[in-house]
Each structure stands twice: as C-alpha cells, then as structure tokens.
Write a structure and sequence with these properties.
Elements lengths: L3 E7 L5 E8 L2 E6 L4 E8 L2 E8 L9 E7 L10 E6 L4 E5 L9 E3 L6 E6 L5 E5 L3 E6 L2 E7 L5 E8 L2 E6 L3 E6 L2 E7 L5 E6 L4 E6 L3 E6 L4 E6 L5 E6 L5 E5 L3 E6 L2 E7 L5 E6 L5 E5 L3 E6 L8 H15 L14 E2 L14 E5 L5 E7 L4 E7 L7 E3 L2 E3 L1 E5 L8 E5 L5 H11 L7 H12 L1 H7 L122 H17 L10 H15 L9 H13 L6 H13 L1 H6 L1 H12 L9 H15 L8 H12 L7 H17 L7 H17 L4 H20 L11 H14 L4 H13 L1
Parallel strand pairs: 29-30
Antiparallel strand pairs: 1-28, 2-3, 3-4, 4-5, 6-7, 7-8, 8-9, 10-11, 11-12, 12-13, 14-15, 15-16, 16-17, 18-19, 19-20, 20-21, 22-23, 23-24, 24-25, 26-27, 27-28, 30-31, 31-32, 33-34, 35-36
Helix pairs in contact: 2-3, 3-4, 5-6, 6-7, 7-8, 8-11, 10-11, 11-13, 12-14, 13-15, 14-15, 15-16, 15-17, 16-17
C-alpha cells in the first residue's frame, strides 16, 4: 500500500513549522502565525481544532517548534503541549480547552527556540539560534549544552542524561549531562533533524539533501539520497520506515534503504514531519496546511478531495509563464543543440540557457562553431548582470574614491541571500551583511518583503527555494524582526571544512522497514592503555547503558614497537530488538509453507534466547557454550540470505565475547561466513553488510590465533584473494583490524613463515590500493611493523619486507598529514624495513 491523503487541517495563516502526533486522535502544530493548535480527530478523515495557543505576552512571535509531554503525576490528565518561540522562550501548556495560558514558562535562551524533544519522564530538550541546547527537568534548567558554533536545529533526548544535538555548523554532538563526549562529522550542510534507531544508533537529515544512518560510535552505515533540496525533518514510522520532508515540497518514504514513495505537496516547503502510532504521517507545509497521510483505505480522503489535491500539486509544478516574454512566439532550443553542427552558413537558433535568458546564435561554417550574437530575452524591468537578468541592479558605493559596484536583486529572492552573494563577489567583510540587507529591503520594498515571507509563503534565508548556497561561508547577521539562524552576534564563522566521515555510497537494504541494525564496532578491551586507533571502530570504554554511545578515550601521542593493541567488535546496542527481529523472521519462515522447514527448532529457539539474555543482562548471564555457536553456524547455512543479518551479528558478538569457542569451530565458521558473504568476490547488497560483519567476526577471532592453526593461514589466503578496491570503507577498516590483531598475537606466538609472508602480501595489496583512508593505512603499517619486530626477535625471515619500503613511506606521509603525531610510529616501521 502507498500513502494517500487522509485529511487536510486548514486553520493556520502562515507556514506550519512544527508538528507532533503522539496519539492517533491528537495532532499538534506550530506556525509562524504565532499560534500552536491542538487538533482532535473526530472521524477517520476529520480533525477539528480543540484550541489555539497564543501567549498573551508574545502575540506576534513565531512558534517554531512543538512537542508533546505525557501526563505526569499531579498534572493535566491529557498531558502537555511544549512550544518553542521566536522570543527564545519554551512554554508548556495543558491540553485543556479551558486553559489559554501556559502552565510553565522556561527562560534561558537568548534567541529563537527552533527545536524540541521530550521524554515520558518529563525531560525537555530545546535547541536555539543562540548556539546552545538546554535540558529541562521538572520544568527547571538541568543542563546547558554549549559547544556548537551555530544554531542548534535538531535535538534528541536519548534517556537518562544522554542527548544528541545537530547544528548549522554541520556537526552532531553526543552529550552526557552537559559534557560533549563525541562529535560526529559527515554532513556537508546544516543538520536539521535527528531520530533514534532503537537497535543501532540514529538518523540525521541535512541541508546537504541527504539522510545519514549512524551507529552511536560514528559509523555511517548508509546514505539515503533522493531529495532535490534541503531536508528539514525526519521521523521513524512504527514499521521501521523512515519518512523525511524538505524544501523540494515533498515527503519521502524510505523502505529497506531505498526510496519507496514520494508524496508531492502543493507548496514550496514541507517544514515538518511526524509519525502517528497507527503509522499515518503528519506533515506541515509552507502553505499553512497540516496534512495527514495514510496507507489505510478506510482513512483515505474522499475522491473529490484527492482530485483537488492532485490538481493543486500539478498547478504548483507548472512553470509560471511570463506574458511579456519576447520569446513566447519564437521557437527556442535548449543548450544541447549547440553540440550539433549547423547545416548552412548563417543559420540562426535562439537558445534558452538554464538561467532563463535567451540568446541568439549563428552557425559559422568557417570556424565550424556556433557563435553567440547577443541577448534576445529582456523582459520589461529586467536588467542584465553577469549573464543573468534581475529586477534591480543598483549602483552602490563601497568605499570613498572607489568606483561604484553593482548590486543585483530579483523580487521574491531572499535579501539575505542576495546580500551574502554580493559580499562574497566583492570580497567585502561579512560585517557589512546587515547594512547590505537593509539597503535591499529599503530599495526593493514589497519585492524584498516577498522574499522575507510578507504577503506570501515564508522562505527562510538559508532554506527557501531561491536561497543562495555559498561554497564555504556563512552569513553573520540579520536585519528586520526575522533573525536568520546563521546570523546575529553569535553568528557562525566557518572553520576549515571537517574531514568527511568514511561513509560508503551504498544504501544498505537492512536499514529500512523494521530492519534489524547490527551493533556498532567495539574496540579493544584487552590492552592496558587506550587504543590510539580512531574512526568509527575506535576503542571506547564500556557504558553502563549498552544502547548508548560510550565516551571517547583520548589516544596517546606516540608509542613504540611492538604495537600491542587489539580491536574487538563486541558492542551490542539493543539485544532485545535483535531478538524481536529474529522472532519476526522465524514467524515469517514458519508461516510460509515453502519455508516452514527452515524455522527454528524448539531447542534452537531456547539457545538463541540464552544468547540474547547473555548480551542483555548485567548480572546472572547464561554462559555461552559451543552448542550456541553450532546453532548459529547451522542457521548460516540454512536460512535464506535476506534473513541472516541478525544471525551474523550474533555470531560476531559470540566471537568477541568467547573467542576460544569461535576459534574451536573456526574452519566451519570461516567457511560459512565466506560463502554467505560471497568471498572472495565482493557482492552487492544484500551481502554488503553481511560481508562487513563477517570481517569483524574474523577480527574478533584473530587475537586468539595460534601457530599451526590451519584456519589462520586459510583466513589470510582468503583475504589475499578479496579485491580490496571493491570493498567499502567499513569493510576496509575491518580487514585492517584483522591484520593488526594478528600482528599483536604474533608478539607472543611464533607463526610460521607462510603465515608471516601471506600477512605481508595482504598488507602490500592494501597499501597498493588505499590512498585516502589514513586510518586503514595506519593500522596495516603498524601491523607490518609488529610482524617485522616479531620476525626479527625470532630470526624468522619476512621475505617481502624490503619491497614494501616505497609503499610504506608514501603511506606514512599520508598518515602524518592526517595525524602528525603518528609520523614517528610510521618511521619506526620504516627503520625496521631497512634492517630486515
């Protein structure tokens, strides 16, 4: 089934900036018309406003965000509405049509409150244009979260004293109380929304048009791309589907990591999205309408309303014709026709460029080229500047004794964007932004007001359809009553762009529709000092809450060989969610006649239950025995590939928690995982994630490797056949961890020359291919150093060592460029190569 319109809630007079839908019969909306409305469902397709909430002390201030707070002891029986306002105040109202003023007023922010999230225990977290987030408990300030360099557009309370914030500085931060313990980088634009994944981490959306799926450790496991403009809001349906809303006027539904449905709206922007318990979707648009969408036929709107919506969407999509266009009666052509030679000398064509201007071209037979003759499209009132036409081109002074410069502007364009563009073009200080913006507003009058939202749909200066998107800068201040989140006294001034996260481009099919998300990488717990490895799989101390991201442990600046750290992938985010997923899969297999024989036997189900209890409980855990892993290996060969992700992840956990059990069954385990992953070939989805988990399982086994164990050489020979260039970033780091962990084991165990040389051959293959991921290079360079150190101590020859000098030298330079403190470690490996 696809989503169709169920209801349209039309009372707001301006943009709907926030929506919440905590119950199937309750919708909350927040608008720029200075009101929040409580809507009650009176029939399947009918909602009526119960009350409009407008504070008497701020009757004209925008309401930017809204959230629901469940009933609390001694409070209103229907719960609370929490609203975030332009005046920087968070207000808490009773859901009671007889009460028209807030019960609680939470002050502390100095600029607009633009994001809210709540928890059933009464926790409220708010984000603001003042670059902070604030946590409120019992309606009093509990924590002040300071650290972002720009507006905090997204907030998420994880439970207890843990929080996530997303900002216009492109960063996401994890907080424990008021301490930031982790910063996530990966987006190339302001972060606009956050939503939790109960069994893996969270998802984020951004002005960069992407949705990223993260583990709590910082791994980006999937990127969802499909929106054609900024993505403002994101929500999770009960089914596990992701829904998003954006500046392209659409709501998009993502299922199994793929775009499932695009729901077009007859408005410029869809600002907000939320999910009902029933799975219905609520959206808030720039046309002031709240819409409810449903897959249930009994909640579909009437046919005439569906047709009216369809007509409105089509009308909104039509380009607006200009009756004064001098080319309206002339045949025009797109620029692509200029790639085709003319037929006769002097042949003319009118070309309409992408910016809408029309230009006359003539075929020059002598030079065999189309030559531009001049501009043909010059509608009345338009002026040419830089090859484009504008409603206004003003001559302005920027300095005494300097020639005037031209300031172009189009009516309806955001004046902040035009001012920003002018400042960048003329290399002016950003402090002039206020002055230039005010000049545009004064000169353009109603034309500028349209760009600000006056007399029509509001378009945010950095989010509207016509917004300017600078390559590497931010505005600094704003003028008029509306204050842009990127401006004001605390305006964001960009630092050099952060390093991009090592995310692959593949869309994991296991990350949508109720899919199980495997636990994130967990690093070494065996070393006596902190693991200096960084990236998504770096070591982080165990948390008292297994579903929460652990704090970051700083890495030592340098170490000496041998390098004695191991990386174990043994963390688990939500074993119960894994268990639920397994039960769903098992039920599906059991209910289908053709697969009923594959379902779990009672004794297998009991063993799986024990594994889940082991990884869930803090005390009194059931012991893991060989029979548990035997069951998993049997299922790896019995269940269909699309059902095996949770089984593979349980296998990874067992190998990390009880490596001796995994090593005892290593041949069968390696064979099963290799076959399932498609090794040595690199298979596309759905085997992509399974292959990554298989490599992580091998990494968990590697520290227990012993001389003479055939599986060690078998595993290395398998790795040597895998085409490294085809691996994604998460697979590559896992492979590097295998090599590193084996090299640590080699310090206390005398592996034979065949193992050492095969290990070196895999390292060589990695270094011949890997030129961008400094973390992978560091791990394999140190792994080589360990093996050289071990072979020298035991006078065991490493035949191919000297041939690696050039590759290692280049890798060390790249490593040092990313982490200068690591150069000494890399050079120590080079010295060992020289003495080999």
């Amino acid at each position: 089934m696809v989503f169709t319109l169920s209801a349209q809630l039309s009372v707001h007079q301006q943009d709907v900036r926030g929506v919440a839908s905590p119950r199937d019969n309750l919708v909350l909306s927040a608008s720029r018309d200075a009101s929040a409305i409580i809507w009650h469902r009176d029939a399947p397709t009918t909602f009526n406003p119960l009350v409009a909430l407008t504070p008497s002390d701020a009757p004209t201030k925008f309401v930017n965000a809204v959230a629901y707070l469940p009933p609390m002891e001694g409070g209103p029986p229907e719960g609370y509405v929490v609203t975030g306002h332009q005046d920087g105040i968070v207000r808490v109202w009773a859901i009671d049509p007889n009460l028209s003023e807030p019960l609680h007023v939470l002050t502390g922010h100095t600029q607009d409150v633009c994001s809210l999230h709540t928890l059933p225990d009464g926790t409220i977290i708010s984000g603001s244009w003042d670059n902070t987030a604030k946590v409120w408990k019992n309606f009093s300030l509990a924590y002040d979260l300071k650290g972002h360099e720009a507006s905090v557009w997204a907030v998420l309370a994880l439970g207890g004293v843990q929080f996530l914030t997303g900002s216009a500085d492109k960063r996401i931060k994890f907080w424990r109380e008021d301490r930031c313990t982790r910063t996530y980088t990966g987006h190339n634009g302001p972060v606009r929304g956050l939503v939790p994944f109960s069994d893996i981490g969270f998802a984020s959306c951004s002005n960069d048009q992407n949705i990223l799926l993260w583990t709590h450790e910082g791994d980006i496991i999937s990127t969802l791309s499909g929106h054609t403009s900024f993505v403002y809001s994101i929500a999770m349906l009960p089914s596990g589907d992701i829904v998003s809303a954006g500046e392209d006027g659409t709501v998009r539904v993502w299922r199994d990591g793929e775009l499932f449905q695009t729901i077009a709206h007859p408005c410029t922007s869809v600002w907000a999205i939320s999910a009902m318990p029933s799975g219905d979707i609520v959206s808030g648009g720039s046309d002031g309408i709240v819409r409810v969408w449903s897959e249930a036929s009994e909640r579909a709107a009437a046919a005439d309303e569906l047709k009216a919506l369809d007509d409105a969407v089509k009308e909104a999509a039509k380009p607006k014709a200009d009756p004064n266009d001098p080319l309206k009666d002339i045949e025009t052509f797109p620029p692509e026709v200029l790639n085709t030679p003319g037929t006769t000398a002097g042949e003319n064509k009118i070309i309409v460029e992408q910016d809408g201007s029309g230009w006359a071209y003539e075929w020059d037979a002598g030079s065999h080229q189309w030559k531009r003759l001049g501009c043909m499209r010059a509608p009345p009132g338009k002026k040419l500047f830089g090859g484009k036409f504008y409603d206004h081109v003003w001559e302005v002074d920027i300095a005494d004794g300097q020639p005037k410069v031209q300031l172009p502007y189009n009516n309806g364009e955001n004046p902040y964007a035009a001012a920003q563009r002018f400042i960048e073009r003329n290399n002016l200080p950003m402090v002039y932004l206020d002055q230039v913006t005010n000049y545009i507003i004064q000169q353009a009058g109603e034309g500028a007001a349209a760009g600000m939202g006056g007399g029509g749909e509001y378009q945010d200066p950095f989010t509207g359809a016509g917004s300017y998107r600078p390559a590497g800068s931010r505005p600094a201040a704003a003028a008029s009553n509306y204050q842009d989140p990127f401006t004001g006294s605390g305006a964001y001034r960009p630092a050099p762009a952060p390093a991009a996260s090592g995310a692959s481009n593949y869309a994991d099919p296991f990350t949508g529709a109720g899919a199980y998300r495997p636990g994130p990488a967990s690093p070494p717990a065996q070393s006596s000092f902190a693991d200096p490895f960084t990236g998504g799989s770096r070591y982080t101390p165990a948390s008292s809450n297994p579903s929460s991201p652990p704090p970051v442990t700083p890495a030592p600046a340098s170490i000496s060989l041998p390098y004695n750290n191991t990386t174990l992938y043994q963390s688990h985010t939500n074993p119960q969610a894994l268990h639920n997923r397994l039960q769903d899969i098992n039920k599906r297999l059991k209910d289908e006649p053709t697969t009923s024989g594959l379902a779990l036997y009672p004794e297998e189900a009991a063993l799986i239950e024990q594994l889940v209890q082991h990884f869930s409980a803090r005390n009194g855990r059931p012991a893991i025995g060989s029979q548990h892993l035997e069951t998993l290996i049997d299922l790896l060969g019995r269940w269909p590939p699309d059902a095996l992700l949770p089984i593979v992840d349980l296998t990874r956990l067992v190998a990390g928690a009880e490596p001796t059990i995994a090593i005892a069954q290593a041949p069968a385990l390696i064979k099963a995982l290799s076959k399932l992953s498609g090794f040595p070939a690199v298979e596309p989805a759905p085997r992509t994630t399974i292959a990554m988990l298989a490599l992580r399982t091998f990494a968990n086994m590697a520290p227990g490797a012993t001389p003479g164990a055939e599986w060690v050489l078998e595993m290395l020979q398998l790795l040597s056949k895998i085409p490294y260039a085809q691996l994604n970033s998460q697979q590559r780091i896992a492979l590097a961890s295998i090599l590193s962990n084996l090299s640590v084991a080699a310090q206390t165990r005398a592996f034979g020359e065949e193992v050492l040389n095969t290990h070196a051959a895999v390292i060589k293959s990695v270094l011949q291919t890997e030129t961008t991921d400094a973390e992978v290079q560091y791990r394999v360079v140190m792994a080589l150093g360990n093996m050289l150190y071990a072979s020298r101590a035991r006078t065991t020859a490493l035949s191919d060592a000297t041939s690696l000098r050039e590759l290692v030298s280049a890798a060390v330079n790249r490593i040092a460029a990313a982490r200068p403190e690591r150069r000494a470690n890399g050079e120590s490996v080079l010295k060992l190569i020289g003495s080999a």
